[in-house]
Amino acid sequence: MNRLSLPTPAQAPAASQPLLAQIQQAFGSTPQMFRTVALSPAALQALWAFFGALGGGTLGAKLGEQIAVAVADRNRCEYCLAAHTALGRKAGASSEELRAAQQGESADPRTAAALRFALQLVEHRGQLSDADLQGLRAAGFTEGETVEILAHVALNLFTNYVNVAFRVPVDFPPVPLSRAA
Question: Carboxymuconolactone decarboxylase-like domain spans which residues (predicted)?
Answer without folding.
Answer: 41-118
